[in-house]
Amino acid sequence: MTRVVILAEKPSQAKAYAEAFTIQEKTKTYILLKPDKTFPDGATITWGVGHLVELKEPHDYKPEWKRWKLDQLPIVPDRFLEKVSKGKWEQFQAVKQLFQQADVLVNAADVDREGSNIFYSILRLTGVKGKPVQRLWINSLEKDEVRKGFNNLQNNDKDLRLFDEAKARQISDWMVGINASRLFTLLLQKKGFSSYLSIGRVQSPTVYLIYQRHKEIENFVSEPFYQIEGLFQSQAGDYKGLAEIKEKDKAKVQALMDQYGLKEKEDSTGIVQSIDKKTKYQKSPKLHSLSTLQSVANRRWKYTPSQVLKTMQKLYEKRLVSYPRTDCNFITESEFAYLLNNLNSYQQALNISFTPASLKPNKRYVDSRKVQEHYAIIPTKSVPSQKKLSGLSREERNIYHEVLATMLAMFHTDHVYEETTIFTYVHDLPFKSTGRREVKRGWKELFPKPSTSKQEKETDLPDVKKDEQVGVRLHIKESMTKPPKPYTEGQLINMMKTCGKLMDNEEDVEILKEVEGMGTEATRSSIIETIKAQKYIEVKKNNVYVTEKGIMLCEAIEGTLLSSPSMTAKWESYLKKIGSGEGSKQVFIKQTSQFIEKLIQETPDSIQQVHVRSTGEKTKWNAPIAKCPSCPTGSIMDRYKFYACSAYKEGCKVTFPKKLAGKTLTKNMIKTLCEKKRTKVLKGFKGKKTFSTALTLDKDYKIKFDFEKKS
């Protein structure tokens, strides 16, 4: 008998796998499958809860590393070790026991480097060795795709390389975060800074990108410029045109008017010299990767990138879309075949009907050479009924329609429009007018029609005739140059992906192009959420602004590699080499260590130039919150990742977590607990479902749920 144990990344994923087979038994920690063709002796599916295992904190290695002191830097353990994440001990023990009993292990976590990291980090901490490991590699949670995947399990060679890549990334990010955050915070606190800075390999250059835009806007000086505009009256209607001159000096524009004997605001005549009409064909957009979907959804509905990823994850778990964390815009012939088979059903789901322009794969969308781990985001074979669609949330429905319409667009006709250029001569001075007219909506009929703007109306030109004489009134048009606009969150995703365009060094540009900028499709939205939480940026009306705290961070890291996209590009480039077997995890970690040493040597001098400013945070981050409920002398303080008594050196062991059941515990909640031993009913705790409860403090000063307290 062969005992197969399958590890899913989270319970919802385990449930989706189990539903593709026949379930024998469900428990709190695993699901047992009945024997069948795929698993002749049955199988057990268990799960992580995201990361069951995390890297140890500095104080787990040495107690003295708990305090933030300059003379303890750099903090680099001889060996990096892991521990069970807080609150996840019970599930870890269950997984460990199943791993010990197994004959074959299957890694069925997400098919990316973090999925490999989750599986092998858990496996390593269980101490289980020498058992065969296989890898499930699928792009959809549909039942037939799940069964197909389990019938064609892969070996774990690639998976182990991805684990090395993920672990190198995780350890290096830990080293940079721990050391750089302490270094910059402590040096700035010497200058009177009353808060702390969190610094990261990708988050810091991202803040710096926003800061650069802030500086461009701040330093921009608006200047006037002048043009000659003609207002023309033809038999078919009025239109406007501009002479080809654009000058800061109004006198130069006036001189041109004088040269041609033209007068402002005086009725005159002109001749239509030429009319050039071109028919243009616009192809449908490429299939979506996660970042293009995030960008479109932010522009159209103001959804944040994080909101889009969460919504996509829900649709993926409902088996309506393919794997969301993809950076690819292409599919293979295999996906194209099933999309073609379901074409009519997809049209019905979108409540639209059209005759396909072509039923053959087009290289613009279908190219297996450009598909690596994952293909583009597309609908699955499971086409929802109108009833199921109406049961989705508004966000889910909008995002699903966008994915569906973008896929259907590749079967539709081109969008066709006519572009017209008219040259009207007034006293031999040419005036250019351009306009466009829609000929055929084509694929655009699949998408919501944008509201017709004033500008679009003005681009419609009347049907004038060549050599027609038209009435003219000229004036010198004064306009002002405009500063660049702040990024929206959707544009920020694009900037992170294409920041190579901002760089001067050709080699760096190429690397950024190769690795697609800063962060990955899976992490960019969480990086934006992190820098929001750190109060480095704020979002107002969908525009992203750098805060006073963010400006100070950027002034502190200016000139270092922490402000440069090139550093994160080179890191990502080498990480990819580790994943493909061409690079070494040990070399990467050693280089990170050398980078930190250099930072520790150079930062004390460079930080002298930084102007310490008020960050708008009302209290010192580590100011007393309340009197300790246990000891007579201590106060409860913010210890960055948790709350604890200031008298810990005297032996007081009172600590409180920053998060409990998925909810952040604020300083006010902790103050209330310390002073009144009970809070009011609080919303937003997460278990199998979201729940509300009051919190109480027991006699051992531990926080407990109190479900009996009525709101």
Automatic annotation (TrEMBL):
It holds the Pfam family Toprim_Crpt. Residues 159-600 form the Topo IA-type catalytic domain. Gene3D superfamilies: 3.40.50.140, Topoisomerase I, domain 2 (1.10.460.10), Topoisomerase I, domain 3 (2.70.20.10), Topoisomerase I, domain 4 (1.10.290.10). It catalyses: ATP-independent breakage of single-stranded DNA, followed by passage and rejoining. Its EC number is 5.6.2.1. InterPro entries: Topo_IA, Topo_IA_2, Topo_IA_AS, Topo_IA_cen, Topo_IA_cen_sub1, Topo_IA_cen_sub2, Topo_IA_cen_sub3, Topo_IA_core_domain. Keywords: DNA-binding, Isomerase, Magnesium, Metal-binding, Topoisomerase. Belongs to the type IA topoisomerase family. NCBIfam families: PRK07726.1, topB. This is DNA topoisomerase. It comes from Halobacillus amylolyticus.
